[in-house]
Amino acid sequence: MTAWLALPDLASRRLGGGVVGTNDELFAAADNLVTPEPPGFTPRTFGPKGQVYDGWETRRRRSPGEDWAIVRLGVPGRVRGVVVDTSHFTGNFPPEASVFGCRLGGHPSLDDLNAADWAPLLSRSPLAGDTANPFDVSVDQLVTHVKLVIHPDGGVARLRVHGEVVPDPVRFPDGWLDLAAVDNGGRVVGCSDLFYGAPSQLIEPGLARTMGEGWETRRRRDSGNDWVVVRLAAPGRIRLAELDTSHFKGNAPGAAALRGVDERKADPADESAWRDLLPHTPLRPDTRHRFEVRTDPVTHVRLDIHPDGGMARLRLHGHLDDGVLDTLRAAWQPRAGGGN
């Protein structure tokens, strides 16, 4: 049911998501909905308006209606599931919620969004309190914004919007981009170890601020090495690889290598189909390494680190393969009849 939880949270503040409007946030700000960290709670912590909650909480309704918050997705995409997380809200959670989506280009105002054509992603559904409530979404529609409606009022800690990234091609008109980046559609699909840090952090936006924002494996006590596989945003030719060990000083890998495969021509499960992109190369601690590479089109890249350790970021800059940019542009064209 929840395989989509492995997909990126399109609404996360870490990817640029934000709350652009709400009808009420008297007790707790709606901006908390898109905080990437899990919600916290400290009992008996009171502010001027009552118990302090790490979430969004509206006042008690004394009239008919419902409360809502509109979220700008950090990256546009097709939603496959949502989590309406009511963690720590027990006697004050909404009994039901619904979610809608729309697609608007540019930088729409709240008035633009209120006038938008919103399509249902999740029909009115029951919620449990103090629970991460997951719901499948079966609407195959490209969206840039979502609207969470709670019936009738109450508190929600987080809204997670998991889906497949569909990047706006206006961001790379010549087809040059970071093919690994999560905000372009890259995704980690396998790794050997994630003991200290999630490998998905390797392809997140921006520089890692601390060691904890990278990928780090446990200390190996055998003759093997650790690795991670990234499914690229789209088939492309890599020209520049960046292997960033920033903040990893006594625990950086001693060396690394890159291999690639084009799943359109060979099965990635066939080990012999992978070809070298960057040979076994020594790395230095706390350093942003950049290497020129020349590849035929690939769809997957495997980073091998030797023998273990931590990496802050992996960047794979290159050109989209022939025809891919046209396909992306077509995905962003309005549907026949004026719909999105």
Assign the CATH architecture of the largest domain.
Sandwich
Model regions low in confidence, pLDDT < 50 over at least 5 residues: 336-340
Tell me the series of helices and strands, N- to C-terminal: EEEEEEHEEEEEEEEEEEEEEEH
* Average of per-residue pLDDT values: 94
Instruction: Determine and state the CATH class of the largest domain.
Output: Mainly Beta
Number of helices: 2
User: Over all CA atoms, what is the radius of gyration?
Assistant: 22 Å
Note the main sheet: 8 strands, antiparallel
The CATH homologous superfamily of the largest domain corresponds to: Galactose-binding domain-like
- Approximately what portion of the residues adopt beta-strand conformation? 35-45%
Structural class: mainly beta
What's the end-to-end separation, in Å?
A: 27 Å
What gross morphology would you assign? globular
Helix content: under 10%
Total beta-strand segments: 21
- If you consult CATH, what is the topology of the largest domain? Jelly Rolls
Domain count, please report it.
Answer: 2
Structure, explained:
This protein is mainly beta and 340 residues long. The chain folds into two domains: 3-165, Jelly Rolls (Sandwich), CATH 2.60.120; 176-324, Galactose-binding domain-like (Jelly Rolls), CATH 2.60.120.260. 4% of the residues lie in helices and 41% in strands. The chain is built from two helices and 21 strands. It has helices spanning 110-114, 324-331; strands at residues 18-22, 46-47, 50-51, 56-57, 67-85, 96-102, 119-126, 132-136, 142-151, 155-156, 158-165, 176-178, 187-191, 215-216, 226-244, 255-261, 275-282, 288-292, 298-306, 310-311, 313-320. The strands form five sheets. Strands 12, 13, 15, 16, 17, 18, 19 and 21 form an eight-stranded antiparallel beta sheet that branches. Strands 1, 5, 6, 7, 8, 9 and 11 form a seven-stranded antiparallel beta sheet that branches. A two-stranded antiparallel ribbon has the order 2-3. β2 and β3 form a beta hairpin. The longest helix is centred in the last third of the chain and has 8 residues, at 324-331. The model is unreliable at 336-340 (pLDDT under 50). Keywords: Hydrolase, Purine metabolism. It catalyses: allantoate + H2O = (S)-ureidoglycolate + urea. Residues 16-165, 185-319 form the Allantoicase domain. It holds the Pfam family Allantoicase. GO terms for molecular function: allantoicase activity.
